[in-house]
Amino acid sequence: MNDVVTSKDGTTISYLKIGEGPGLVILHGVMESARSHFELAEALSPTFTVYLPDRRGRGLSGAYGHDYSMQKEVEDLDALLTKTASRFVLGVSFGGLIALQASWNLKAIHKAVIFEPPLLIENSISTDWVDRYDKEMAEGKIAAALVTGMLGAQMGPPIFQRMPRRLLNQMTKLGMALERSSDGSDGPLPMKVLAPTLHYDSQVVIEMDGKLETFKAIEIEVLLLGGSKSPSYLKTAVDELEKVIPHVIRVEFDGLNHGATGNKNRRGQPDRVAEAVRSFLT
After folding, report:
1. What UniProt keywords are attached to this protein's entry (predicted)?
2. Is the pLDDT of residue 146 over 90?
3. Of 113, 117, 160, 243, which has fewest CB within 10 angstroms of its CB?
């Protein structure tokens, strides 16, 4: 079921609702939308009422606005928690970064699950690629910009890091051509539509650089999740967060990577992730 909530600044946030039980909000990551974790929501739906928002700038949700920041993301989540009376949050990748910040300053959250947030730890990964991405987007070179983002954030199979950029551009163009159009109401948003969102997410990742010590003040229980085959900078973030968050449990999924939480057609294993989430939250 689709519904909407209005954030503090008047921005409309669209979300899906599935299941029965205590409320759980799942925040998607970079280059994703609400339905990117629909199968995870289905796996959790016998135990929880799961809410899947399209973060602002995507799908049926409102635009970023001129003063977009982490604070706006936290306000969007706060509005949804208030409307649905949800007390649990599961944040994936960039969504995990939001869930971390929100767990620090939103009393409505009673437990949080964080999957591999891109928290920068002492230059654990360079963000120099962002300028090139922005330039390519401004020139209308969407495939090239997506390749720049993928390589910069070390996403995709490791072999992509060794392939010629020209070949990756061709593969990305083909992938975009094969994707069907969607506004997010009946499936994940296509790459071409999501491409501009990478600018905003990357700016907030940079904004959160150096904030590790902040999370010492998180008072609730936190489950940190990660995959054994994920990029090293994401493992570093989980390692360091495990040291500073007072009440923390860590689970690493052997053989899985950063796509572990996603739908099966994106090589995710939502049932396996759901088992760990359910065990922690119940």
Report:
1. Hydrolase
2. yes
3. 243
